[in-house]
Amino acid sequence: MEYCITMEQTRRIAVWFNADSDEAAEEKALEIYHIKRYRHALAAPEKKQICQEADAALQAAYDQLPPEDKKHPFTAQSETARDYRLTARKLLDQKYTALANLCQE
After folding, report:
1. Scanning 15, 42, 53, 84, which has its CA 20 to 30 A from the CA of 60?
2. In sequence order, what are the residues at sequence separation of 6 or more whose Cβ sits closer than 8 angstroms to the Cβ of residue 23?
3. What is the DSSP string of 19-83?
4. Sign of torsion, CA 67 70 71 73?
5. pLDDT-based confidence at residue 86 (cuts at 50, 70, 90)
6. Which pLDDT score is estimated for 105?
7. What is the mean pLDDT of residues 79-102?
8. How far apart are CA 89 and CA 17, in angstroms?
9. CA 60/CA 54 separation, integer angstroms
10. pTM value?
11. Taking 70 as the threshold, does the pLDDT of residue 7 lie above it?
């Protein structure tokens, strides 16, 4: 039989799969919905530390902006604002890479 589960987070996701019975389908649906490696990463104590360090570094970069750039840090065209946006992208990339590495443990 063919089954479908839908998950709604920031957008709706539909996953189609085949199973031999309703019990097998329910087990497969739970496996899909609660992927263990992601749940582990969300519950890991390292996650909080990774997020706190990235947020602190991002705040430190923001604090170095001049007052006029702090009003609109993502649209200001000064060199300082551009450097901030580049730093923010790098910090977020490092953060998400570290979180992705947690998923592989």
Report:
1. 42
2. none
3. -SSHHHHHHHHHHHHT-HHHHHHHH-HHHHHHHHHHHHHHHHHHHTS-HHHHHSTTT--SHHHHH
4. positive
5. very high
6. 64
7. 90
8. 37
9. 10
10. 0.61
11. no
* Tokens 């709604």 found at: 8
What does the alpha-carbon distance between residue 96 and residue 9 come to, in Å, rounded to a whole number? 18
Tokens 């104590």 label which residue?
Answer: 45
Structure tokens at 46: 């390292």
The residue assigned the tokens 């329910």 is 26
Say how far residue 45 (Cα) sits from the centre of its chain.
Answer: 16
Q: Which residues contact 44 (CB under 8 A, 6 or more apart)?
A: 102, 105
How many Cα atoms within 13 Å fall on the side-chain side of residue 99? 18
CA distances from 99 to 8, 36, 45, 77 (A): 22, 14, 11, 31
Amino acid at 75: T
Query: 60, 52 in Cβ contact below 8 A?
Result: no
